[in-house]
Amino acid sequence: MNYKILCSDLDGTLLSTKSDVSSFTISQIQRIKESTRIILVSARMPSGMVYIQERLGITDQPIICYNGALVRHGDKDISSVVIPVNLLQDIFELTIGLNAKLGLYYNDEWYVPNISERVEKEIKYTKTTPVFQETKTTLSHWEERQIGAHKIMLMCTPESADVLMPTLTNTFGEQLNLYRSNDTLIEVAPKVVSKLTAIHSLLNKGENLKDVIAFGDNYNDIEMLENVGCGVAVANGREEVKKISKYVALKNTEDGVAHFIKNHLVF
């Protein structure tokens, strides 16, 4: 197999631990990076991705952040799409009275109302630090700054997520992409962008999606894996993701992406 671009999700896919890539993965990326553009594609914020880029030695390449809502190359934003403040306020109002908190992301800014186990995990695994501030205050400041959110992370209990997910889908399904990452987390992004649209925007003249191989594990990877030249799921991925993928690699904890590169990609 020979592809011009390799795109990979991070969490549960390229990362062999919760926060890092293995030395074997680094060696395989080093082997192909001169002939293949390596683009990291994640729901993470930029600062939670750049240290992985540095470990892999690919800081000369762009990154796709927030499931495609922000595409950045170095310090330059190539594209940026946000959820407007009025929608953020509507979503916040839906959480009142429920055990659910909003994590709000804009560029390299992250705001949460208070510390929690979920926030502590995010700090540890992504090596980023939030601003602790009441959501009402954050929304008021953002309205003054005329900015919105690249991503919302709704931190719930299983019960509150069960209530919120159908309500959000019915109310905002035509305007927003909604992903239930697990039983307590709902991620929200602008509808007009995705990992796939971001990849498409980075194709050079003469390139098309057939020139891309991509790796993923979760629901927000399905569109990407279905439409590129070669979609590869990792064995620990969702069954729905494995079903639509051309190949299934080893688990992320077994360096699935790196082994697939070693065994199948010729450069």
Which properties best describe this structure?
267 residues, 11 helices
Please outline what is shown here.
The protein is an alpha/beta fold. The strands form two sheets. Strands 5-4-3-2-1-12-13-14 form an eight-stranded mixed β-sheet, sandwiched between helices. Strands 8-7-6-9-11-10 form a six-stranded mixed β-sheet, covered by helices on one side. It is 37% helix and 24% strand.
Broad shape: globular
**Which stretches of 5+ consecutive residues score pLDDT under 50?**
none
**Taking strands numbered 1, 2, ... along the chain, how are they ordered across the largest sheet?**
5-4-3-2-1-12-13-14
Query: How many runs of DSSP E, i.e. beta strands?
Result: 14
Could you tell me how far the N terminus lies from the C terminus, measured between alpha carbons in angstroms? 8 Å
Q: What is the residue-mean pLDDT, rounded to a whole number?
A: 95
**SSE-based structural type:** alpha/beta
* Whole-angstrom Rg: 18 Å
Strand content: 15-25%
What is the number of helices? 11
Could you give a short account of the major beta sheet?
A: 8 strands, mixed
Order of helices and strands: EHHEHEEEHEEHEHEHEEHEHEHEH
Instruction: Give the helix proportion (percent range).
Output: 25-40%
